[in-house]
């Protein structure tokens, strides 16, 4: 067989990705449905179609704003307010590198799969709210019926698209050096956008359950590390990991992102609820 | 005798030189790590290198592996301690092995010693010489020089022979071997028996070493004598020795069952000893040989020569009337009652006693004193004399009677007398006639009376219904005298025309030992082999004139065994045809070694390799733990579990009797009784398992007071005259056992002579012992077991309850003895049930039955099953009686 060439390889990757994505898509829809049944408003008065509240007429309200039918029942004039329904753009960014495509045990989800699940679920919630979702660097904002499927398909696209404005939802393991992470956040303009940063880690990465002599290999082709007694360095590793997580939290807060930590052995539901709460516009 | 340590393969030891190289190699090669993908690798790199432990093999592991390597090298080098050389010289070995009768008892030990000598000879080669001729009368001859494997195979095929070694032929064989093969070194595995020509044979063999068991172990059973009263006298010859010799001897029946056991004691310095084996007449007739227990050897078997008997009946009638007259003659009915195939002769007493008859039947014959002497000798030699009474003998009795008789005739139911004709009640259970069916509707109108003042009950073989003796009998020498106190024709009784008369005559004429043939050629019927078994005679066996049999030496041509012709059979025992055993003298210059004293090489290679293997598996475990593949804690838990499992398996917290229903017997401490109890209950358990829905485990022996009796439904307690009363705790335990629903079966192996049943006389002290041992027990009031009791129909319907013996009463608790349910907690009998149930491993009965009526063993087994079902189900079967009434009530 001849080498299919770079384009062919990309197509093959996309196909395999699609194969993994369709179940993820279903899972994400199910997850979103369990988290936010029905359409949701912004919980404050604004430009929308749904009734929100009646209030007294204030100076500056136009006469057209007065709800005469309601006002005729009493001595006071009322204004009918509608709920504010904003259409906003959510920009999903799911890290994809060999380290993300790793799960510590056979049958356990990889970090990437969990990140995609959460990301698509957030996107589904966003679509429910009438918002639009973009993929950072990969896809322009989409919305409307079938948008979730298109979005999922977009995950396989190369990073070619121009970045768009919108709130950020960053998913990744964020195990790089803190300096690099901060620079990366800055390059995405996180400070202006706001949003969440979800650090997804495998339980093995958190707990370090290894014992005895272990030759640790990087996910990418890195020089392996030979540890004679893994249980001896567990404490030192935990200290380093805590420092890394603190650094990620610091970097996220500096970039006005709300940091959320998630382990792939934890149920995704609570994490999704936390992400959704973090993405609510500040009142 | 220990030698220096040497190695089978010293070249392998050079491998030890490689150990230093191995040391550096192992040190440089750490244990292989486990590979693990781990994305946060950067975090690990940042950990200070001091916290990452050094990658180096631990020193102790290194030492362990070096140890394993050196053990493997050592093990393959094969260290051994070789005994010092026993055999001088360098040429082949001439190994002479005695395989005559004296070597048979410990022949396997001799072969083992010979194997060791072959091992020692190694590559020198061995020529074998078995010193006894074989059954085809092949003279002893030395083989050629054999390799080690060939010699071992030839040794495995070697057998002991039932005749002595032929020293003359041996001498010739040694000389021939020495001319054929040069530089032979002799070794002699000797039987230790002095023999003519042994000195010259040893001189020619010139053995470097003699391997011999001490001659004091040789046992030679001489042909038994028959005492005047019919008892067997077992005779044993040994080599004179300083210690007392105590040797048991068994009397066996044709199927190999032991009927009696006696102990022969020989005083220090003496060479001969005797023991008396007194058996009830019925049993004595079944003894066909005496054997020494232990490994069977031809020297330990004495045949009684009664294996092939043929009835030759001589008939004599008194008076002048024609004895053959149809329906009236004195001999008319006897001729017809004799067993088919019997040859019948008539003539005078003198003619018949000389003619080789086995039985002489005298119908109302008045004997003269010389005839009485002749008949006495005839009986001593094994003949049977059967007398019938009649008018001639009634008026004047002579001396040839089993017991004193009164003159005159007792007339019953005649025209001038009162009374009525008496029926025949039956045969005495302890007599040789026991087991014959009692004649039905036979009446006796006239008879001669035995003198009641001096009557010995043992001589009464049959009685009339009123208790008057009608047949008297006594054993005389090897033969029997029986006196029927009525006529042989129908003049005095209608017995001769009764259905059971031929059976009675048949039983009587076979009572004698048979007469040894005195003339003519005898040929071997069965021959003893080297293992003391009766087999088909070898091809070399030749007939011999009967007169010469007593003097003939045993040899392949005349093997020990049964010899005979149409007139009968006679035993040719080794004991009567070899000289008395004497210990051999060996030259003082030759070292003599015991059979098991030959030193053997001790090899350590396999043990060392096993140790290396153990260490290797330990190393494997350690490696797994070091690599983290096996948690130390998991391994420890596994080890603890393994230990705990082994521990529970050893400790056996649950007694096996609690897991399966199990019968038990009381251990008496007498191994013979206990083994019979165990075998009996085991056979019974098997039968119960086959026949019924109950499932029984193997029986167990218990000691009341120390064992937990609550586990067993049935406890069998054999009581003999030697049984001592149980202690206080044992009594309490037995009482508790009975009170809590257990069934205690107390059994004695017969009783005193005054007891009922065929076991009378077998264990005279049993009744007293029974009284003694049950004194402290809470035995309820007893009643006699009948066919109406539940115990007689819990599984099989049984009417009588025989064991090895029959007829003794069986007692159970009278109703309400223990509680309202009416289950008897105890069964007491004297029929030796376990003896009837017991079978050996092959399933053959261990003990002979007495009287041995057909079906006796079957009935004993039926009763045994009933006992078990009674113990398990109580009166359930009685409740079944109510079922029709219950069903009727339910349907109403």
From TrEMBL, chain A:
Highest taxon in the source lineage: Bacteria
Xref: PANTHER family: BLL2464 PROTEIN
InterPro entries, per the entry: DUF58
Protein name listed in UniProt: DUF58 domain-containing protein
A family per Pfam: DUF58
Residue ranges constituting the DUF58 domain according to the UniProt record: 53-245
Organism: Acidiphilium iwatense
Automatic annotation (TrEMBL), chain B:
Organism superkingdom: Bacteria
Parts of the chain that traverse the membrane: 6-26, 59-78, 604-626
Nuclease listed as a keyword: no
One of the Pfam families matching this protein, by short name: DUF4159
Keywords: Membrane, Transmembrane, Transmembrane helix
Boundaries of every Aerotolerance regulator N-terminal domain copy: 5-79
Family annotation (InterPro entries): Aerotolerance_reg_N, Double_TM_dom, DUF4159
KW Transmembrane helix (keyword) present: yes
Domain DUF4159: 662-872
Protein name in the entry: DUF4159 domain-containing protein
């Amino acid at each position: 067989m001849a080498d299919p060439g770079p384009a062919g390889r990309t197509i093959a990757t996309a196909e395999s990705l699609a194969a993994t994505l369709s179940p993820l898509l279903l899972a994400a829809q199910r997850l979103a449905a369990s988290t936010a049944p029905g359409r949701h408003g912004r919980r404050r008065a604004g430009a929308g179609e749904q009734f929100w509240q009646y209030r007294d007429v204030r100076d500056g309200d136009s006469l057209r704003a007065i709800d005469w039918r309601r006002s005729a029942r009493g001595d006071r004039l009322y204004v009918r307010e509608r709920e504010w329904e904003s259409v906003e753009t959510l920009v999903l960014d799911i890290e994809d590198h060999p380290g993300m495509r790793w799960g510590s045990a056979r049958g356990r989800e990889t970090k990437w799969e969990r990140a995609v699940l959460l990301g698509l679920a957030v996107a589904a919630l966003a679509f429910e709210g009438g918002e639009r979702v973009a993929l950072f660097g990969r896809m322009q904002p989409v919305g409307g019926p079938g948008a979730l499927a298109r979005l999922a398909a977009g995950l396989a696209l190369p990073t070619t698209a121009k970045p768009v404005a919108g709130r950020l939802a960053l998913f990744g393991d964020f195990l790089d050096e803190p300096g690099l992470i901060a620079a990366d956040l800055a390059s995405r303009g996180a400070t202006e956008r706001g949003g969440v940063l979800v650090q997804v880690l495998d339980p093995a990465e958190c707990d370090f359950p290894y014992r005895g002599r272990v030759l640790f290999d990087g996910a990418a082709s890195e020089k392996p590390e030979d540890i004679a007694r893994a249980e001896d360095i567990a404490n030192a590793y935990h200290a380093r990991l805590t420092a890394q997580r603190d650094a990620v939290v610091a970097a996220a807060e500096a970039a006005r992102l709300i940091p959320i930590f998630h382990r792939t052995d934890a149920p995704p539901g609570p994490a999704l609820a936390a992400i959704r709460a973090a993405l609510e516009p500040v009142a | 005798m220990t030698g220096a340590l040497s190695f089978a393969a010293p070249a392998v030891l050079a491998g030890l030189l490689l150990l230093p190289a191995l040391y550096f190699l192992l040190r440089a090669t750490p244990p292989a790590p486990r590979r693990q993908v781990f994305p946060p690798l950067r975090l690990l790199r940042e950990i200070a290198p001091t916290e990452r432990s050094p990658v180096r093999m631990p020193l102790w592991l290194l030492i362990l592996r070096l140890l394993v390597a050196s053990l493997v090298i050592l093990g393959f080098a094969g260290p051994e301690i070789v005994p010092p050389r026993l055999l001088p010289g360098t040429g082949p070995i001439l190994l002479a092995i005695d395989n005559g009768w004296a070597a048979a008892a410990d022949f396997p030990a001799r072969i083992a010693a010979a194997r060791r000598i072959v091992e020692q000879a190694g590559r020198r080669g061995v020529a074998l010489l078995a010193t006894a001729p074989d059954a085809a009368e092949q003279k002893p001859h030395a083989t050629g020089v054999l390799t080690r494997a060939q010699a071992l195979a030839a040794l495995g095929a070697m057998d002991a022979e039932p005749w002595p070694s032929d020293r003359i032929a041996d001498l010739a064989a040694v000389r021939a071997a020495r001319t054929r093969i040069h530089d032979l070194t002799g070794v002699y595995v000797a039987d230790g028996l002095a023999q003519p020509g042994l000195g010259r044979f040893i001189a020619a063999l010139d053995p470097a070493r003699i391997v011999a068991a001490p001659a004091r172990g040789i046992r030679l059973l001489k042909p038994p004598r028959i005492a005047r009263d019919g008892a067997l006298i077992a005779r044993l010859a040994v080599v004179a020795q300083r210690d007392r010799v105590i040797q048991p001897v068994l009397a066996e029946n044709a199927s190999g069952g032991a009927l009696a056991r006696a102990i022969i004691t020989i005083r220090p310095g003496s060479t001969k000893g005797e023991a008396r084996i007194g058996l009830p007449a019925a049993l004595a007739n079944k003894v066909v040989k005496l054997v020494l227990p232990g490994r069977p050897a031809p020297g330990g078997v004495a045949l009684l020569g009664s294996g092939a008997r043929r009835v030759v009946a001589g008939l004599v009638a008194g008076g002048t009337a024609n004895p053959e007259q149809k329906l009236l003659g004195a001999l008319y009915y006897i001729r017809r009652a004799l067993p088919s195939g019997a040859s019948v002769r008539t003539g005078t007493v003198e003619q018949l006693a000389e003619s080789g008859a086995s039985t002489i039947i005298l119908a109302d014959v008045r004997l003269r004193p010389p005839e009485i002497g002749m008949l006495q000798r005839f009986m001593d030699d094994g003949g049977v004399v059967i007398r019938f009474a009649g008018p001639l003998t009634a008026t004047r009795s002579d001396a040839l009677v089993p017991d004193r008789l009164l003159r005159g005739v007792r007339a019953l139911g005649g025209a001038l007398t009162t009374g009525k004709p008496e029926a025949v009640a039956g045969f005495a259970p302890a007599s040789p006639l026991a087991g014959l069916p009692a004649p039905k509707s036979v009446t006796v109108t006239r008879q001669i009376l035995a003198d009641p003042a001096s009557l010995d009950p043992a001589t009464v073989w049959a009685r009339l219904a009123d208790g008057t003796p009608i047949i008297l009998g006594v054993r005389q020498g090897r033969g029997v005298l029986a006196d029927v106190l009525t006529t042989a024709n129908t003049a005095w009784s209608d017995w001769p025309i009764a259905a059971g008369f031929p059976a009675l005559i048949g039983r009587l004429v076979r009572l004698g030992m048979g007469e040894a043939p005195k003339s003519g050629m005898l040929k071997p019927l069965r021959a003893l082999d080297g293992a003391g078994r009766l087999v088909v005679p070898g091809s070399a066996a030749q007939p011999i004139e009967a007169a010469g049999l007593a003097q003939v030496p045993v040899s392949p041509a005349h093997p020990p065994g049964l010899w005979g012709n149409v007139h009968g059979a006679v035993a040719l025992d080794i004991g009567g045809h070899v000289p008395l055993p004497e210990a051999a003298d060996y030259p003082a210059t030759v070292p003599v070694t015991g059979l098991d004293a030959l030193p053997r090489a001790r090899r350590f290679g396999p043990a060392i390799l096993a140790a290396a293997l153990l260490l290797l598996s330990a190393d494997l475990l350690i490696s797994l733990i070091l690599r983290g593949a096996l948690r130390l804690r998991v391994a420890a838990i596994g080890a603890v579990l393994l230990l705990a499992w082994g521990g529970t398996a050893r400790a056996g917290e649950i007694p096996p009797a609690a897991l399966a229903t199990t019968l038990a017997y009381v251990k008496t401490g007498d191994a013979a009784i206990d083994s019979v109890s165990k075998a009996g209950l085991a056979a019974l358990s098997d039968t119960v398992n086959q026949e019924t829905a109950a499932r029984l485990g193997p029986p167990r022996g218990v000691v009341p007071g120390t064992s937990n009796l609550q586990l067993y439904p049935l406890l069998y307690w054999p009581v003999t005259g030697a049984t001592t009363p149980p202690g206080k705790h044992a009594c309490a335990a037995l009482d508790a056992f009975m009170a809590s629903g257990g069934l205690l079966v107390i059994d004695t192996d017969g009783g005193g002579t005054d007891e009922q049943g065929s076991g009378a006389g077998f264990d005279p002290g049993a009744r007293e012992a029974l009284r003694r041992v049950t004194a402290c027990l809470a035995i309820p009031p007893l009643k006699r077991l009948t066919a109406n009791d539940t115990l007689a129909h819990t599984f099989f319907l049984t009417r009588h309850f025989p064991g090895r013996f029959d007829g003794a009463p069986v007692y159970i608790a009278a109703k309400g003895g223990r509680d309202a349910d009416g289950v008897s907690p105890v069964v007491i009998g004297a029929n030796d049930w376990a003896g009837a149930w017991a079978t050996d491993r092959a399933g053959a009965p261990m003990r002979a039955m007495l009287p041995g009526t057909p079906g006796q063993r079957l009935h004993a087994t039926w009763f045994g099953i009933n006992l078990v079902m009674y113990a398990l189900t109580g009166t359930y079967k009685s409740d079944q009686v109510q079922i029709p009434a219950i069903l009727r009530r339910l349907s109403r």
